[in-house]
């Protein structure tokens, strides 16, 4: 008799473990990776351009030219 109850308990533990594993995988796949922009928090092109200019990645003339392209 104890074999039957132990067997049922083992299967219950296995099923619960599989459910937990599936939930963890689904939750981890739906989160956006760290550092990647979400659709809600994505920066506008103008903000990105301003940040690049502030960092010194582009010159003032490049900034002005790109800004005109964005605003068209």
Report on the structure:
This protein is mostly helical. The protein contains 3 helices and no strands. It has helices at 2-30, 45-55, 60-71. The longest helix has 29 residues, at 2-30. The chain is rod-shaped, with a radius of gyration of 27 Å. The mean pLDDT is 82.
Secondary-structure topology with pairs:
Blueprint: H1 2-30, H2 45-55, H3 60-71
Number of strands: 0
The main sheet comes to: none
Helix segment tally = 3
Low-confidence stretches: none
- Return the structural class: mainly alpha
Assembly type of the chains comes to single chain
Net shape? rod-shaped
Helicity range: over 70%
Beta-strand content estimate: under 5%
User: SSE order in H/E notation?
Assistant: HHH
Distance between the termini: 80 Å
Radius of gyration: 27 Å
The averaged pLDDT comes out at 82
Nutshell version of this structure?
This protein has three helices and no strands. With 72 residues, the chain is mainly α. Helix 2 (45-55) runs antiparallel to helix 3.
Q: Which key terms come to mind for this protein?
A:
72 residues, mainly alpha
